[in-house]
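> example.struct
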């Protein structure tokens, strides 16, 4: 698969001792190596939220990793990698904890209000946007505007067909999820 070039994303942000992309990955590959989809298959959704990838696309043939750093380049640019669940944990720990990190990492704009809406402060420039998800049946898209999920390089159980991911919703919380690898979620890469 053709790798994304470093110049194909807008920026990065240092949070603690980690350097994260400051936007969701929007890499689609070339020709038969095409990966990911836009929310509702609308190109303007990719421009706003980045692409939604299944776990196999994210990993690009690599095995699961729980190491910190993961050591999995996947579809990330050279010099970057797919974060392990432990790396997500380090980010959340730096941002406070699981109860308040979602607010500190969410963009100040681009979120729909919900019944327990708490505005994002984007305290670190992570600028998380609610790119939604594509369910494993590949035909159902949901939650754009109110939430998003981001893959980790860590399987929950090698035989289960599930992998760990992080979810942020329009309320304050940030959650840990175990989801079917065929769901379409966003991706943030971390610098090696």
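> example.seq
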């Amino acid at each position: 698969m053709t790798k994304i070039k470093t110049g194909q994303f807008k920026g990065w942000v240092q949070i603690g001792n980690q350097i994260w992309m400051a936007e969701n990955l929007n890499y689609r590959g070339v020709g038969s190596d095409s990966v990911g989809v836009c929310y509702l298959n609308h190109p303007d959704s990719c421009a706003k939220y980045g692409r939604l990838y299944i776990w196999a696309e994210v990993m690009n043939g690599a095995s699961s990793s729980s190491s910190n750093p993961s050591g999995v380049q996947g579809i990330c640019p050279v010099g970057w990698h797919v974060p392990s669940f432990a790396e997500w944990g380090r980010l959340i720990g730096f941002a406070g904890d699981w109860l308040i990190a979602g607010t500190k990492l969410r963009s100040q704009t681009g979120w729909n209000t919900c019944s327990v809406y708490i505005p994002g402060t984007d305290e670190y420039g992570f600028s998380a946007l609610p790119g939604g998800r594509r369910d494993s049946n590949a035909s159902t898209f949901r939650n754009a505007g109110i939430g998003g999920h981001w893959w980790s390089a860590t399987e929950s159980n090698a035989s289960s067909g599930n992998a760990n991911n992080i979810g942020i919703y329009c309320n304050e919380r940030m959650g840990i999820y175990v989801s079917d690898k065929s769901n379409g979620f966003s991706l943030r890469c971390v610098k090696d």
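> remarks
The radius of gyration is 15 Å.
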